[in-house]
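[scheduler] slot 2 assigned
[scheduler] job type: sequence-to-structure, two independent chains
[scheduler] chain ordering preserved from manifest
[runner] begin chain α
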Amino acid sequence: MENKFIRPLALAIIKKDDSILVQVGFDSKKNQKFYRIPGGGIEFGETGIMALNREFMEEFGSKINNIELLGFVENIFTYEGESGHELVVVYKADLVKESLYHEEEIRILDNDESYAIWENIDVLKNKYFYPNGINKFV
């Protein structure tokens, strides 16, 4: 049996009017553009909130506040031809760095090729929006 593991993630829904902040990605194997709420992996010994704070500082240079747990989703997926399995802790939060709410495209600081945008919630429901099951929280 292949040595695979389930990855724990902490992701946050950040709202601005009728839009939410999403990272834009591309799967070259599927030739598919997709959207994902920001956040990242929970490291050993780290709580979900600690992981969110670390990830938002690394990716956006901003702290977050008003953090509230919304629930959990399990995401089994294929990306770039590889299977993955995630247990996702979903929060809602606000960005402390107010200027980010006024940017159309936000470059991810720790990945030059990645960026985030504000996308209308209703529009996202008709696009590839991950992790699977996240729609019930937006």
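[runner] end chain α
[runner] begin chain β
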Amino acid sequence: MLYVAEHGCKWRGLPKRFGNWHTIYTRMRRWTKAGVLDKMFEELQREQVIRIKIEAVSLDSTSIKVHPDGAGALRATNKTMSSSSA
């Protein structure tokens, strides 16, 4: 998980030395849902083994559909239409 966060790669991009990427992904997902990772990081911070604050905001534009008006397209207005026909 830390490798993926540090290197910004996808799970499928994990080096083979870590094992099967899907097995690792499935395990991390299970641990996240069960709260295991939160507890582990809290304990590591409490023991001052690590000092980390994880905050992430991710926005993938390929998954967001934008209305043409929001994409910067010019609108056809009466003024524009009448000046172009003159």
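[runner] end chain β
[qc] chain β: The radius of gyration is 24 Å.
[scheduler] slot 2 released
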